[in-house]
Design a protein that fits this description.
Aspartate Aminotransferase, domain 1, globular, 17% strand, 14 strands, 2 domains, alpha/beta, 388 residues, Aspartate Aminotransferase, domain 2, 41% helix
Length: 388
């Protein structure tokens, strides 16, 4: 007998855990259209406001005229376009590594890296709040999967010291997607060098936003570890970069190993070359338009200030991800739905994505948001907050 999928779905809905898709009818921006209605959106990863930039649209058109649309084959057959190759070289230079390799998505990049670099005789050490793609990659690798408490470097060091694995790989988000906090990259790298481990950093939410000229979490403050042979760096290109895809940057022998062994790279059609052509323009905008990161910082500061007196507290975060802790799932859903009725989109994040009792609104800020947009959100939140 087949499982009762309908009953499982009903139970999920009763628990406030069922998710629904919304059909967007406009380009991604701070204001979008869904089902004919206009909304102020705080639910996008378009942190720099590039997803609908006219220069990127122009570059897509140029790329389509020059390269066509589909790549037509995997990279190792004849799908590796000059556009892909030029972008890989540009990304390696931008991120400060010898080589870079394009993947279709960040999920596929993490799966490919982890399963290519470690196996049955090896060990993976993972922060407990890592993204699901890193956890899935660890399970698929068949390596011993060892987790440590969030950002607890003392616990990580103890686990590294106790391990006799053939190879050791530490995997961590650089910016944690549900918390908005930043991993201590310099200390993580030092531990990996001490215990002869590799460090895979997933900088999906830091690339383009953090560090000098938006070069990512490796360039924050004194995190001068970009040239460490221990570091394997992954970043996505569909968030702050405004387009699509992901890349991995590392030492040349690591990248060559991925080309030869990463199944999620080998066994899939290459992404449309026109996207790589557009991403060259995106890189220039990220590097040159510092005002976007400055506007983002101003928006973060305004949000924090406007919610100082709220009964709901923002979790500590200096990134565009600003989680507002609500508590119970049904209450987070109530507030999210009430905002929706006011024309404001902020998603409610519930278990199992976050722990029980820690449901939250995940406010995602963009350089495209204006001060009046932030004010509209915070006034609505203050009106919806319970008052004693």
């Amino acid at each position: 007998m087949f499982p009762d999928w309908a009953e499982q779905l009903r139970a999920r809905e009763q628990q406030g855990l069922r998710r629904f898709r919304q059909v967007v009818e406009s380009p991604q921006a701070s204001h979008i259209t869904i089902n004919g209605h206009d909304y102020l959106a705080f639910s996008s990863n378009d942190y720099l406001g590039l997803a609908n930039h006219p220069d990127l649209i122009k570059s897509v058109e140029e790329g389509a005229r020059h390269y066509g649309v589909g790549a037509g084959a995997s990279h190792l057959i004849h799908g590796h376009s000059a556009a892909h190759h030029i972008l890989e070289e540009s990304l390696a230079q931008f991120a400060g590594f010898p080589k870079a390799l394009l993947f279709s998505t960040g999920y596929m990049a993490n799966i490919g890296v982890v399963t290519a670099l470690v196996g049955r005789e090896d060990a993976i050490f993972a922060d407990k709040l890592n993204h699901a793609s890193l956890n899935d990659a660890a399970l698929l690798s068949r390596a011993k999967f060892i987790r440590f408490p969030h950002l607890d470097l003392t616990a990580l060091e103890q686990r590294l010291a106790d391990s006799n694995a053939r190879r050791k790989l530490v995997i961590s988000d650089a910016v944690f997607s549900m918390e908005g906090d930043i991993a201590p990259v310099k200390q993580l790298t030092a531990l990996c060098e001490k215990y002869h481990a590799l460090l895979l950093l997933d900088d999906a939410h830091g690339f383009g936003v953090l560090g000098r000229q938006g070069r990512g979490s490796l360039f924050v403050a004194d995190s001068d570890v970009v040239h460490s042979p221990s570091v394997v760096y992954m970043a996505t290109l569909g968030k702050a970069a405004g387009v699509f895809g992901a890349f991995v940057a590392a030492q040349a022998d690591v990248i060559e190993t991925l080309i030869q062994s990463a199944r999620s790279y080998i066994y899939t059609t290459a992404t449309p070359p026109l996207l790589s052509h557009a991403l060259l323009t995106s890189l220039k905008l990220i590097e040159q338009e510092e005002w976007r990161r400055e506007a983002l910082l101003q928006n973060i500061a305004q949000l924090k200030n406007d919610l100082l007196s709220s009964c709901w507290k923002l979790l500590p975060s200096s990134t565009p991800i600003q989680p507002l802790l609500i508590g119970e799932s049904h209450e987070a859903v109530r507030v999210s739905q009430a905002l929706h009725e006011r024309g404001i989109l902020v998603p409610a994040i519930r278990p199992p994505t976050v722990p029980q009792g820690k449901a939250r609104l995940r406010i995602s800020l963009s350089a495209a948001h204006q001060p009046n947009d932030i004010l509209r959100l915070t006034q609505a939140l203050n009106e919806l907050a319970p008052h004693s």
